[in-house]
Design goal:
The complex is a heterotrimer of chains A (520), B (287) and C (367).
Chain A: H1 2-26, E1 47-54, H2 58-71, E2 75-82, H3 84-92, E3 99-104, H4 109-113, E4 123-127, E5 130-134, H5 145-148, E6 156-159, H6 165-176, H7 180-183, E7 187-190, H8 195-200, E8 206-210, E9 219-224, E10 233-238, H9 246-255, H10 258-266, H11 274-277, E11 281-287, H12 291-305, E12 308-314, H13 316-326, E13 331-333, H14 337-345, E14 349-358, E15 360-365, E16 385-388, H15 394-405, H16 410-416, E17 419-421, H17 424-432, E18 438-442, H18 443-448, E19 453-456, E20 466-473, H19 479-490, H20 492-500
Helix pairs in contact in A: 2-10, 12-20
Chain B: H1 18-45, H2 57-63, H3 65-102, H4 108-120, H5 123-136, H6 138-147, H7 154-179, H8 182-190, H9 195-206, H10 208-224, H11 227-233, H12 243-252, H13 256-279
Helix pairs in contact in B: 1-13, 3-7, 3-10, 3-12, 4-7, 5-6, 5-11, 7-10, 7-11, 8-9, 10-13, 12-13
Chain C: E1 3-12, E2 15-24, E3 29-33, H1 40-48, E4 55-60, E5 63-64, E6 75-78, H2 90-100, H3 105-118, H4 134-147, E7 152-156, H5 164-181, E8 184-189, H6 192-198, E9 201-206, E10 209-214, H7 216-221, H8 226-231, E11 236-245, E12 248-252, E13 257-259, E14 266-272, E15 278-280, E16 290-301, E17 304-311, E18 314-321, H9 322-328, E19 335-339, E20 346-348
Parallel strand pairs in C: 3-8, 3-9, 6-7, 7-8
Antiparallel strand pairs in C: 1-2, 1-4, 4-5, 9-10, 11-12, 11-14, 12-13, 14-20, 15-19, 16-17, 16-19, 17-18
Helix pairs in contact in C: 2-4, 3-4
Classes of the chains: A alpha/beta (520), B mainly alpha (287), C alpha+beta (367).
């Protein structure tokens, strides 16, 4: 038995050794937790609050404010009601300030881009389901969404572009249900407020409206399934011009509470999804080179919405292969637009947008010992150059474009190059480890190596800048949440995070401006 | 039962053969030196000073707790999944190897070839094939949807490791059972053992060394796998990233120091594994 | 237990058994003797139950056990390399079978001790098989086999790996133990001395067939066919005829006329063991069965001298004690008289003929 006792002892020793190693990893100090003091409780507030309400939401708002008036009798609500498009345009143009109650989130984007939205002031009141309405009595017997694309309906009224989410998501729902091709010929685009009228007055046999718009002149035929489109939310946000007084805070808090929600729910609206969204998880295929930014984006997104995102990192091309074979996942974040184009061609992408740009720069060793000032210096015999393989990575392709755009011969550079690399980070590693003196590299990737390398920028144009796309995949099981992530990355918070990680957000203001140009 | 060889046969024992002995030994030492130099270089590099912080890379890494947390998680994940894979390989491998060793199959050449395929296949190809199986075939889809999700999960790590590493276990166990004289079981049966009892009371205890060797080999190989895990389980840090994948992720993000740290860690683990394996009396291949 | 094998046939790779018929009565020590590679082990394994025969059956005490599994037959088997379980001590090895049968600890202890004493391995009980010598292993394996009180014991070349001196001693021990316990035993061997020391009856085995079954005397002095004769080193086989001359039959060839015990007339082959032949000085031709001849060669065999003699136009191989060789001054080329005693002659009528082992009743050869 002694032989086997020895074995057990050895196994125990091995395990103990490994546990010690593991424990050694545990002994790092943690920073003290961030100090988040709870906000001061507002006592009885008093004073005026300007509120901007879109016309279609007025009846709802009136119901919701009743309880607020009881709780805070000394607060006067100065309500401005206008058709949605007009109201939002005025808010964006800084003509009006106040607590804006509207549908969203796409409606808010122009206001956001005009920097007129107060950061972090968004309150989600409820979700607005869409529904199909028809003439009273439903004479045509429309029972399902498919029927609106059928022969019974000769004209279908949808919200126009200015009407925001309702129109957009109605179209998305038809697309997802594969009815768009049949239906689009019959679509009449009208402003949001006119949708009910179209059906009531017989100009259209059916219309898709928000459930809050249903009135006596029309009958509800059938609901539009929520899985067919992204969420339409009922939101309240502050414009930047609104001073934050206690009464404003009180109203904002109230609108987000269960008390305000009750009359809304009674009218057919739904609880906001944030609570339910927790526990769901999105799957993100992310290029290895975008990892730093992605991790911060994911953390911030989770903090804001409670939705988890599980990323997997590898080369963009390998990601595409995995997507092709596994046919599963929610989001695709490749480092180069070429891959998104491929994915679109294969029919995998539901929606995509450019969220940042890769601008090529020259990356050199620390201190620029070879005194490289521009692209021409790469051709010097004493400079060891590494280039990306044009067939394997976009930086390689773009190096070729940039070189040729500057009137140089790429073949000559190719022959001269010390080595060819398959991904951008490999190029960077080569410069850092001293294997090459210089390379053409993406600005964001170069910025990882600022401790060990320097950057020399040169003038670029639209042809030589690579957009970084983020896309929602067709086989996503949570398209609403996936879209939300995409909107988040496109939104101000996401963009700030990308800038933090060295990405160029605006081609006109690159991260590393060429010498002589104004800085970003 | 093979024993350690006695003192080497003195074909070159004569004093005058010293030169030839020296030349032969120098090949051995040169090879050893090469391996040691490559592995130690990584460890030594970490003690170099990081220009940004002014202190050695190692200290910077030790204090970087996000990285530390990541490596610690990957370490634990690697250990656990490799252990599960090794256990599974034994559960499936012992009966398989016994059958392969003892029974006469008509299609033995075919069976042998199929079992050896995962060893010879490039691991990346195995990973791609696995991904395809689970997502593109009816059987795979059925497993994914109704039994247990595999793709991009920790289960996928075990599946990928098992696919590639269990073949070693079966080979080692087959060699073990080949060495055990079937007469032992015959005698046991004549003494009153049922076929099951003969397996359990005689064949398995006699195969003990082989089983331990198979366990360690599978564990070591599973720890070292990279490509198939990445393809099938994805490379999600904090979720499905094992040590090897973590090294890759850090390299592809430009974190050379972090990768080197993982290199050093894995070299230590490999060395510990080997030492234990040898002490347990294992011999032969560990690939 | 009576072991009977009826028409057993099986082919295992390069070994094949053809129509084996064998009957071993209760308590007998039966030796299967044959050259290596004849398939003797396969025969034993069929009796144990490790192989399913292609044809034929195995009967124990009249019951057909061919379909029974080894663990159901209570047949103990000691294979060629003893196969002591290396991961257990000798004591555990011996107790193995008893533990399987859940015998009470007391009985187990008692039995182990009894067998250890019987086989003189008591000091070895706590040792492991790897540390034992060949003889010690053999005794331990035997103890293990006997512990379960089997009705049948099968030994496969148990003394093959043992040196000369120990072999003699072990033969005696084996025989003694077997006699005391009364276990029906089949012992496979290729060694004559061993066989003669222990066997009650012998079965000659050749290429998967039983050539002859009988007592040692019968097999060695009355071989049933040419193979048995050659195998048992009755080296003198002379073809000729049997003719009736006067009252006695004679064996006749061109150069010989020898009186023989009763035999059928016809072509026959004469078989005489070398040690039965006698040599006399030249000219001593008076008497039955004497033939003048010439010494071809002598070979010193220690206690005996093998003399190759040419007489009666036949070649003879004679074994005489060294003393006689010296007295006769035998030398190559010397004249000598060969005497073939009538009672040492065995006549083979047939060259083959599968004999059955049913008993002394019917056999091809006659006395």
């Amino acid at each position: 038995m002694r032989q086997y006792q020895r074995h057990t002892a050895d196994l125990a020793a091995l395990l103990a050794g490994l546990c010690l190693l593991g424990l050694a990893g545990c002994t790092t100090t943690k920073p003290p937790p961030a100090n988040t003091a709870p906000p001061a409780k507002t006592a009885q507030a008093a004073g005026p609050v300007p509120v901007l309400v879109t016309a279609d939401l007025q009846p709802l708002f009136d119901e919701a404010r009743a309880e607020f008036a009881r709780q805070h009798p000394d607060v006067q609500l100065q309500v401005t009601v206008k058709p949605g498009a007009e109201l939002r345009a005025a808010a964006a143009a800084a003509k009006l300030d106040g607590l804006l109650v509207t549908l969203g989130p796409p409606e808010l984007v122009p206001i956001d881009q005009a920097s007129r939205l107060a950061v972090g002031s968004r309150v989600l009141l409820a979700r607005v389901p869409l529904t199909v309405v028809v003439a009273p009595g439903n004479p045509l017997g429309i029972c399902t969404v498919a029927d609106v694309a059928g022969p019974k309906v000769k004209a279908l009224a949808l919200g126009d572009e200015a009407s925001g989410s309702v129109g957009k998501e109605a179209e998305q729902a038809l697309r997802t249900a594969k009815l768009w091709d049949k239906a689009k010929a019959k679509v009449r685009r009208v402003p949001l407020e006119a949708l009910i009228g179209e059906v009531a007055e017989g100009r259209a046999q059916a219309a898709i409206v928000g459930v809050h718009q249903v009135a006596d002149q029309v009958a509800v035929a059938c609901p539009v399934g929520e899985d067919l489109h992204a969420e339409v939310q009922l939101l309240a946000v502050r414009t930047t011009g609104l001073q934050v007084t206690p009464q404003v805070t009180a109203l904002t808090e109230y609108l987000g509470s269960a008390a305000a929600r009750r009359p809304l729910l009674a009218k057919g609206l739904l609880e906001p999804q944030t609570e339910q969204a927790k526990g769901q998880s999105l799957f993100l295929y992310c290029a290895a080179g975008l990892r730093e930014a992605a991790e911060t984006l994911i953390a911030a997104f989770k903090a804001e919405t409670g939705i988890e995102v599980q990323p997997t990192y590898t080369g963009s091309g390998c990601l595409l292969a995995q997507i092709t074979i596994s046919q599963t996942g929610d989001l695709y974040f490749p480092g180069e637009d070429w891959y998104m184009a491929q994915a679109k061609e294969r029919g995998y992408v539901a929606d995509s947008a450019t969220v940042a740009y890769f601008v090529p720069v020259i990356m050199v060793q620390r201190g620029n010992p070879k005194g490289i000032k521009g692209l021409a210096d790469l051709m010097r015999p004493d400079v060891r150059v590494g280039i990306g393989e044009p067939k394997s990575c976009a930086i390689g392709q773009f190096t070729q474009k940039v070189i040729e755009a500057n009137g140089m011969s790429f073949e000559a550079l190719d022959r001269k190059a010390v080595s060819h690399f398959v991904t951008a980070p490999e190029l960077g590693n080569a410069v850092k480890l001293g294997a090459v003196d210089a390379c053409v590299q993406w600005d964001a990737v170069a910025s990882w190596y600022l401790d060990d390398a320097d950057v020399v920028a040169f003038p670029t144009n639209a042809q030589t800048i690579s957009p970084i796309p983020l896309g929602v995949l067709n086989f996503s099981k949570h398209p609403q949440e996936a879209r939300r992530f995409m909107e988040f990355v496109r939104g101000p918070k996401g963009q700030a995070i990308l800038a933090e990680h060295g990405h160029t957000l605006d081609p006109a203001h690159p991260r590393f401006p060429p010498a002589g140009a104004p800085s970003a | 039962m093979a024993t350690a060889p006695d003192a080497p046969v003195a074909a070159l024992g004569h004093r005058r053969d010293r030169l030839l002995r020296a030349i032969l030994s120098s090949f051995l030492f040169a090879y050893m030196g090469f391996i040691l130099a490559v592995l130690l270089a990584s460890a030594i590099w970490l003690t170099r000073t990081d220009r940004a912080t002014g202190s050695p890379y190692l200290f910077g890494l030790a204090r970087d707790e996000q990285l530390g947390g990541e490596i610690l998680f990957a370490f634990k994940l690697s250990l656990v999944t490799s252990a599960i894979t090794a256990g599974l390989a034994m559960v499936i491998g012992i009966p398989s190897a016994y059958a392969l060793s003892r029974f006469r199959f008509r299609a033995l050449a075919f069976i042998d070839t199929v079992i050896d395929l995962p060893i010879v296949m490039p691991p990346l190809i195995a990973g791609i094939a696995l991904l395809l199986f689970f997502r593109q075939t009816m059987t795979g889809r059925f497993i994914e949807d109704h039994l247990v999700p595999v793709v991009y999960t920790k289960t996928g790590i075990v599946v990928a490791q098992f696919f590639v590493a269990s073949a070693f276990a079966i080979r080692a166990l087959k060699a073990t059972f080949d060495q055990i004289n079937p007469r032992f079981e015959g005698v046991a049966r004549s003494l009153g053992c049922t076929a099951w009892q003969a397996l359990w009371k005689v064949a398995l205890p006699l195969a003990r060394n082989g089983i331990i060797a198979g366990l360690v080999m599978t564990w070591a190989r599973a720890m070292g796998e990279f490509a198939p895990i990445m393809m099938l389980a994805g490379s999600s840090p904090g979720r499905t990233a094992v040590l090897s994948v973590t090294a890759f992720l850090n390299m592809s993000a430009g974190h050379v120091e972090a990768s080197i740290a993982v290199v050093v860690l894995m070299v230590i683990i490999a060395a510990l594994t080997l030492v234990t394996f040898k002490r347990m009396g294992g011999q032969g291949y560990l690939w | 237990m009576v072991i009977e094998v009826r028409d057993l046939a099986i082919t295992l790779g390069e070994f094949a058994l053809h129509e084996i018929r064998m009957l071993v009565p209760e308590g007998e020590y039966f030796v299967v003797l044959g050259p290596t590679g004849a398939g003797k082990t396969v025969l034993l394994e069929c009796i144990v139950g490790l192989h399913q025969p292609a044809a034929g059956s195995v009967h124990l005490d009249g019951r057909d056990v061919t379909a029974l599994r080894p663990e159901e037959r209570n047949v103990s088997y000691v294979p060629q390399d003893y196969c002591l379980f290396p991961h257990m001590t000798v004591r555990d090895n011996i107790a193995f079978g008893m533990r399987l049968r859940h015998w009470p600890a007391e009985r187990l202890e008692q039995k182990t001790q009894h067998l250890a004493d019987l086989l003189h391995i008591t000091p070895l009980l706590a040792r492991r098989p790897l540390t034992l010598s060949g003889g010690e292993k053999q005794r331990a394996a035997l103890a293990r086999a006997l512990a379960i009180e089997p009705r049948v014991l099968l030994l496969d070349e148990p003394l093959a790996a043992v040196d000369e001196r120990t072999r003699e001693r072990l033969c005696d021990e084996l025989k003694a133990v077997q006699r005391e316990l009364g276990t029906t035993t089949i012992h496979v061997s290729h060694n004559f001395e061993e066989t003669l020391a222990v066997a009650d009856r012998i079965g000659i085995f050749h290429r998967g067939r039983i050539m002859q079954v009988g007592t040692p005397h019968e097999v060695f002095h009355q071989p049933a066919n040419r193979f048995v004769a050659e195998f048992t080193r009755s080296e003198n086989l002379v073809p000729g005829r049997v003719v009736q001359e006067g009252e006695r039959p004679h064996f006749v060839t061109d150069g010989l006329r020898l009186p023989i015990p009763a035999a059928r007339e016809g072509p026959a082959c004469l078989v005489v063991r070398p040690e039965e032949l006698r040599l006399h000085g030249p000219g001593a031709l008076a008497g039955d069965g004497r033939v003048a001849g010439q010494v071809a060669r002598t070979v010193d065999k220690g206690a005996l001298v093998k003399v190759l003699v040419k007489a009666g136009e036949a070649d003879w191989s004679v074994l005489v004690p060294t003393r006689i060789a010296r007295e006769l001054q035998l030398a190559p080329g010397g004249a000598v008289v060969l005497e073939v005693p009538a009672d040492a002659i065995h006549v083979l009528v047939d060259d083959e003929g599968p004999p059955d082992g049913e008993g002394p009743a019917d056999r091809e050869s006659q006395r």
